Amino acid sequence: YCGPxxxxxxxxxxxxGTLATRPVSFLRTYHIVGTGHQVRRNRSSAGAxxxxxxxxxxVRGRCRVDQEGCAAELKPGSWCVYDSWHPYAITNAGNVExxxxxxPRGQIIDRSFRRLAEPxxxxxxxxxxxxxxxxxxxxxxxxxxxxEGDAFLAETTVGFxxxxxYAAQSQxxxxxxxxxxxxxxxxxxx
Length: 190
Fold this sequence. Notes:
5-stranded antiparallel β-sheet; 11 strands; 6-stranded antiparallel β-sheet; 25% helix; alpha+beta
């Protein structure tokens, strides 16, 4: 699902964990529980991966997402968005629980957007980010079974991500091209 990744434990113990995955309409969701480990995508495997943006919600433990010379530190309840097409590393120092959602690039950004400049961390003080984290956390629940409501869940998830990215851009954080922001405003108006 994710393409080639290098995975190794961060401590002396062997890597142990579980990864449960399921589709939610056009999304692919992953619930990861495991011991400390690092996941790395190198430059040579970039063409062999789905063209997707990934959202990572830290449920338990802490992690660090490194990409393009920038780092994002995540603690429980925080989430970030990163471009899985470009090399990255995610380092989990200890035991972790995470929800990762793979979103097709076209669902988040339009043609005028080149790429995320760095891992984007949603503002943990924003009530919208907190609501999004609680919503995204529900993907880890075993009660969430595939049904006809999947399209609504997927669109809601994408709406949270778009809102966080556009809010950051309006505050001057470099996330996307200005034409993307205008297009978002037009869509919102319509």
